[in-house]
C-alpha cells in the first residue's frame, strides 16, 4: 500500500512546496505588500497560496527580521491589514495543520465561529473599528483615507455593519459623521454612498438567509489542499455535475474568491 499512499500524496495535492524555497524574498514581498498606505492583496495571495504549510512558518521568522528588530508577527500583521472572510482564509494558511484543526474544533464547540454567511465575528469587528477605522478618523496628520476606502469596499456587509456599531461606541459619533468631518467633495459623497449601500445590502442578506457556508469551505480547502484535494475535485464534479472552481466563482467574490481558486487549482 506504500505505492498507493505515495501516488495519492503526489497526485492528490493542489498546493506543493515551492522549489528552491527561500523565505527571505517572500518575507520582503509581504512586508512591502503591507507597508504604508493600502495593501497589495494579490501579492499576499501569490506568496501564501503557493507555499506548502511548513514554508509560511519559515517566512514568518524572516518577516520579523525584515521589520528591523521590531519583532512584528506576520499573522498579527495580516489580521490588522485584512478583514472578513479573506482574512480568515489567509490566516488559516499560517497555522500548522494540527494547530489549525485544534482551533477549528475549539471554535466550533465554543460557537465563536459559524458557517452561516451572515455571522459576524465580534472580535474581528472590534479590531477593525479600533485598529483601522478609529486611527484613520482622528484629526492627527489628516485622515488616512485609504484605510476608510479599503474597509468600506472589501469587507462583507454584515461584518461592516458590526464595525460601524463598534466604531460609534469608540468614537462617540457615527461613521457617517466621521466621513463628513474628515473628507469633502466627490470622495465624501462616494464614501457615504458606499457606506449606505453596504448597510442597506446587509438587511437584504439577512432577509434572504444563509448562502455559502464559508467556514466549511475554508476549512476543507485549507486542510485538504496538501493531501487529496485533487481527488476530491474529481468526485465533486461526478457527484454534482459542476466543478468546484466554477461554484466558487459563482458564490464568492473579490480577494476571497481569488485565494480559494488559487488553492483549488485547475479543474480536473
Structural class call reads mainly alpha
Mean pLDDT: 75
Beta percentage is under 5%
Shape call: globular
Q: What is the subunit arrangement here?
A: single chain
Keywords: Annexin, Calcium, Calcium/phospholipid-binding, Metal-binding, Repeat
Binding site for Ca(2+): 209, 211, 251
InterPro entries: Annexin, Annexin_repeat, Annexin_repeat_CS, Annexin_sf, ANX8
GO molecular function: calcium ion binding; calcium-dependent phospholipid binding; phosphatidylserine binding
Characterize the structure shown.
It is a single chain. With 268 residues, the protein is mostly helical. The chain has 3 domains: 20-110, Annexin V, domain 1, CATH 1.10.220.10; 122-197, Annexin V, domain 1 (Orthogonal Bundle), CATH 1.10.220; 213-264, Annexin (Annexin V, domain 1). Helices cover 71% and strands 0% of the residues. The chain has 16 helices and no strands. The chain has helices spanning 2-11, 23-34, 41-48, 54-66, 74-81, 84-92, 97-110, 122-137, 145-154, 157-171, 175-182, 185-208, 214-224, 229-240, 244-251, 254-264. Helix 2 (23-34) crosses helix 4, helix 8 (122-137) packs antiparallel against helix 9 and helix 15 runs antiparallel to helix 16 (254-264). The longest helix has 24 residues, at 185-208. It is globular, with a radius of gyration of 20 Å. The two termini are 25 Å apart.
Amino acid at each position: 500500500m506504500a505505492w498507493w499512499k505515495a501516488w495519492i500524496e503526489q497526485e492528490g495535492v493542489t498546493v506543493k512546496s515551492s522549489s528552491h524555497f527561500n523565505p527571505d524574498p517572500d518575507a520582503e514581498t509581504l512586508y512591502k505588500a503591507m507597508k504604508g498606505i493600502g495593501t497589495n492583496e494579490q501579492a499576499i495571495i501569490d506568496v501564501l497560496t503557493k507555499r506548502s504549510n511548513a514554508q509560511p512558518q519559515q517566512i514568518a521568522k524572516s518577516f520579523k527580521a525584515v521589520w528591523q528588530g521590531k519583532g512584528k508577527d506576520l499573522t498579527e500583521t495580516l489580521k490588522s491589514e485584512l478583514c472578513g472572510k479573506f482574512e480568515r482564509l489567509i490566516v488559516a494558511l499560517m497555522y500548522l495543520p494540527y494547530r489549525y484543526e485544534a482551533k477549528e474544533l475549539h471554535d466550533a464547540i465554543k460557537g465563536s465561529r459559524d458557517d452561516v454567511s451572515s455571522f459576524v465575528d465580534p472580535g474581528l469587528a472590534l479590531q477593525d473599528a479600533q485598529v483601522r477605522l478609529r486611527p484613520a478618523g482622528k484629526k492627527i496628520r489628516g485622515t488616512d483615507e485609504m484605510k476608510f476606502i479599503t474597509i468600506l469596499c472589501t469587507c462583507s456587509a454584515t461584518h461592516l455593519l458590526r464595525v460601524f456599531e463598534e466604531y460609534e461606541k469608540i468614537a462617540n459619533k457615527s461613521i457617517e459623521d466621521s466621513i463628513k468631518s474628515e473628507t469633502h467633495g466627490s470622495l465624501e459623497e462616494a464614501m457615504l454612498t458606499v457606506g449606505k449601500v453596504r448597510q442597506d445590502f446587509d438587511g437584504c442578506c439577512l432577509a434572504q438567509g444563509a448562502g455559502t457556508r464559508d467556514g466549511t469551505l475554508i476549512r476543507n480547502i485549507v486542510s485538504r489542499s496538501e493531501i487529496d484535494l485533487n481527488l476530491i475535485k474529481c468526485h465533486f464534479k461526478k457527484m454534482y455535475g459542476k466543478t468546484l472552481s466554477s461554484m466558487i466563482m459563482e458564490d464568492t467574490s473579490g480577494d476571497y474568491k481569488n485565494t480559494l481558486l488559487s488553492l483549488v487549482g485547475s479543474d480536473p
